[in-house]
Design brief:
By secondary structure, this protein is α/β, with parallel strands linked by helices. It is built from 9 helices and 10 strands. The longest helix has 15 residues, at about 225-240.
């Protein structure tokens, strides 16, 4: 199974001249993005749940084999704080289903003030349809417990590995057969880029933790100035250097 490498989002104006030609209309950015990457993490749905027709339009712009990870709505994670998940999960998945076979993992990024609650997390994960992969990115230190690790493993949900300033901010747990990594902010110049040393370190961690047949998703979230674009391309190159399968975009 491959290592999918992309960026967190694609709709950044300062990526003109980095990824997008200066005169390329914004409506064609996703299509152009898919000529360089085989996956993207959609953060826009976190702020506003799109219409099903909008999601289907995204799908129509993506080639076969491309996957779009989607960040769960803040209504579920930040307003409801995982409580009463049935309706918000169902509504979110109804929209996300418009991606069809292009749908990748769902990311639950939890608020930094939300303390660990194993029962709440388990009840929320149980509401996702069978076959939907869910990654969880907790940000309060209380989530670092074996009880939480067991809940994730029991639901085959991936603990989202996360990096800030070139350092891990989540435990190095493998809770699912597949993996999910987010690179938020590096310390190399120009900021917030990642240097080769940091990228190589993360490539090595992935390769040592997941076997060749495992599926891994890696997203660079350091978007300012196009740093994410350059780092994602370099990450893919370094993973291939380790002998891992990183798909090449279909043109």
């Amino acid at each position: 199974m491959p290592v999918h490498v992309g960026t967190s989002g694609w709709q950044y104006r300062d990526w003109r001249g980095v990824l997008y030609p200066e005169r390329l209309p914004q409506r064609r950015w996703l299509e152009h993005y898919a000529e360089h990457f085989t996956t993207v993490e959609n953060n826009n749905v976190f702020y506003r749940l799109p219409r099903r027709s909008t999601v289907e339009t995204w799908r129509s712009q993506l080639p076969p084999g491309f996957t779009m990870a989607v960040k769960a709505s803040r209504f579920l994670t930040h307003m409801k704080r995982l409580r009463e998940p049935a309706e918000p999960v169902a509504r979110f998945m109804e929209a996300a289903a418009g991606l069809g076979d292009r749908l990748g993992p769902v990311l639950l990024q939890l608020p930094p003030t939300l303390r660990a609650d194993a029962e709440l997390l388990d009840a929320c994960l149980a509401r996702f349809p069978p076959g939907v992969r869910v990654a969880v990115e907790p940000r309060h230190p209380s989530w670092r417990s074996e009880v939480i690790r067991d809940v994730l493993a029991g639901r085959d949900a991936a603990l989202c590995w996360a990096d800030e300033d070139g350092r891990p901010v989540t435990p190095p747990w493998r809770t699912a057969f597949w993996g999910y990594l987010r690179l938020h902010r590096g310390t190399a110049a120009p900021r917030p880029s990642y240097g080769d040393r940091a990228l190589r370190s993360w490539c090595r961690r992935l390769a040592e933790t997941w076997p060749d047949e495992a599926d891994c998703h890696v997203y660079c979230n350091n978007d300012p100035g196009g740093a994410a674009v350059r780092n994602a391309l370099r990450f893919a190159e370094l993973m291939r250097g380790l002998g891992r399968d990183v798909p090449v975009p279909k043109r």
